[in-house]
Amino acid sequence: MKKIRIVYVGVAMLLLLPLVAGAQVFMNDTFTDGGRTDGADAQDVAWYTTSGGTPSVADNATIGSGNALTFTPRTVDINNASPKYQQRIVGQFGSTATLTNAGDWIKLSFKIVVDSNNNNQTATNRTLRFGLFNSNATSFAADAYDVNRSGNAGNDTGYMAALSVDPNTRGDLNYEQAGTDMTFMGGATAPLTVLRNDALGFLSENTAYTMSLLITRLTSAADSNVSVEYTLGGVSKLLNSSYGTATSRLFSFDEVGFAGGVANNTGGYLVFTIDNVVVETIPEPATMSILAMGTLLLTRFQRRRK
Predict the structure, then answer these.
(1) Do residues 177 and 297 share a domain?
(2) Which residues, at least 6 apart from 213, have a Cβ–Cβ distance to it below 8 Å?
(3) 238 has which bridge partners?
(4) To the nearest 10°, the Cα dihedral for 16, 19, 20, 26?
(5) Rounded to whole angstroms, how far apart are CA atoms 268 and 265?
(6) 224 with 293, same domain?
(7) Are both 82 and 149 inside the same structural domain?
(8) Are 214 and 149 found together in one domain?
């Protein structure tokens, strides 16, 4: 009878292993429902502008068949001042993903095309930026057309990659600090550049890319470092494993952001299209708890058998 119990517990644990091995998906937006709201598609999210611009969903043959989200920055400021061409969109998933233990990770992956709708393709300061962020309890519920007035992005923090578009050849990994300037998701005047590569290569216009950003907690200690890795087409391009200063330690995330261009520069704006935006994390606390319980039960049965 004891052997049978041990077999039952062992089988139950084996059945749970696929759940533990699989990541928890926080969002998976393919825009097939034709909208940018949290609509009919499973695990899609609402997308908002943080400083103007126009998001639109339509078919895009370059990025692939089916709908995708194109973001076009505005070219005239609402106050007749200099437009902020580094405009951005944010997608907010419904719950917060937290990296608690050593080895926990969160990953953003997506497809993207930088469109050639720029009035100055030879500008030397055009960059594409994307990352995972924490809204710090000031999430967006509607489009904002002046991020300085909205107040929702001013305290956002997170990790991001910044990549040059032809003709530059630079790539950065940054930590976005809370502050008052609106550099990307609203962080400090100068985001903390943790890694820079001036010979990384550039992104070509009208070319579909598959990218990802992987953030991993390295230890369970409160002052743990994290590693941040940017990949292009499944190939690692930028990797830093020493994010860990007092100003660059973040373990919880509830939004994803994309931006292009440089603020107040008419030659620096970017039109871009994204699709198949997925955010996943591991482990899922519930399944890990079940596995731990199963392990405890198996240990007790083994002891009884002895």
Answers:
(1) no
(2) 107, 108, 109, 130, 131, 132, 159, 160, 161, 228, 229, 230, 231
(3) 230
(4) -160
(5) 5
(6) no
(7) yes
(8) yes
The 3-class SS string of 56-92 reads: EEEEECCCEEEEEEEEECCCCCCCCCCCCCCCEEEEE
β-pairing verdict for 271-282 and 64-72: antiparallel
Q: So what's the pLDDT on residue 20? A: 45
Cross-strand pairs, 132:
159, 256
Q: Which residue's entry shows tokens 């871009």? A: 272
Measured between alpha carbons, how far is 292 from 157 in angstroms, rounded to an integer? 33
pTM for this structure?
0.82
The mean pLDDT of the chain is 77
Q: Is the pLDDT of residue 21 over 60?
A: no
Domain count, the chain: 2
What pLDDT does 184 receive? 66
Q: How confident is the model at residue 139 (pLDDT cuts 50, 70, 90)?
A: confident
3 and 28 inside one domain: no
**Residue 240 contacts by C-beta under 8 Å, 6 or more apart in sequence?**
173, 194, 195, 227, 228, 229
CATH number of the structural domain spanning residue 153: 2.60.120.560
Predicted confidence (pLDDT) per residue in 204-237, tens digit:
989 999 999 999 999 999 889 999 999 999 999 9
- CB count within 10 Å of CB 32 equals 15
Is the predicted pLDDT of residue 11 greater than 90, yes or no?
no
Read off the tokens for 259: 């931006």
Structural domain including 96 reads 23-283
Token code pair at residue 153: 């992005």
Give the Cα separation of 167 and 133 in Å (integer): 28
In the prediction, which pLDDT does 16 show? Answer: 42
The answer to whether the CB of 165 falls within 8 A of the CB of 67 is: no
